[in-house]
Amino acid sequence: MYRTVLTMIQEHPLLGIGYGNFESAFPAYRPDSLGSLGVWDRAHSTPLELAAELGLPAACLIIVTCLWYLYHLLNGSLHRRRDRYIPIIGASVATLGFLHTSIDFSLQIPGFGVFFAAITGCGLAQSRPSSEQKK
Questions:
Q1: Is there a domain that residue 132 lies in?
Q2: Does residue 133 fall inside a structural domain?
Q3: How big is the chain by its Cα radius of gyration, in Å?
Q4: Which of 11, 66, 67, 88 could bridge to 77 as Cys pair (CB 3.0-4.6 Å)?
């Protein structure tokens, strides 16, 4: 599956196949080894699916933004004096979510995605020390 998605990325590296078009574009690339049963509507790797649908530049921008958020979570967990555990929990959930979505499409499942966004967002909100915030 991953090799097939990499082939899709190689053929459309800059603009991709279009956002949300994975399910309709994949049958043209589907290898015989996957068989004819089942519908593949996801790439089972969110970063690869983003690269296939949006192209490499957009996927890299999204990945860099996620790493920037993770940096702020880790930085907040090191510099806060009170409630340090909130950015630590946010960083932990973000790291686990980003790693798991690299081998599966977990962030595309609403039940996981909402929980992920809520915990990571709370961590980001508390990542700056209170002394730096405007009053």
A1: no
A2: no
A3: 18
A4: 88
Count of residues making up the chain: 135
Asked whether the beta carbons of 91 and 70 are under 8 A apart, the reply is yes
Judge whether 56 and 115 are in contact, CB under 8 Å: no
Structure-block tokens of residue 27: 């049958």
Query: Alpha-carbon torsion 68, 69, 70, 76, what sign?
Result: positive
Mean pLDDT by 10 residues, the chain (135 residues): 90 92 88 75 88 95 95 90 89 93 87 93 87 64
pLDDT of 134? 64
Domain with 121, as residue range(s), is 2-125
Distance CA 84, CA 95 (A): 17
The C-alpha angle 15, 18, 21, rounded to 5 degrees, equals: 150
9/42 Cα distance (integer angstroms): 14
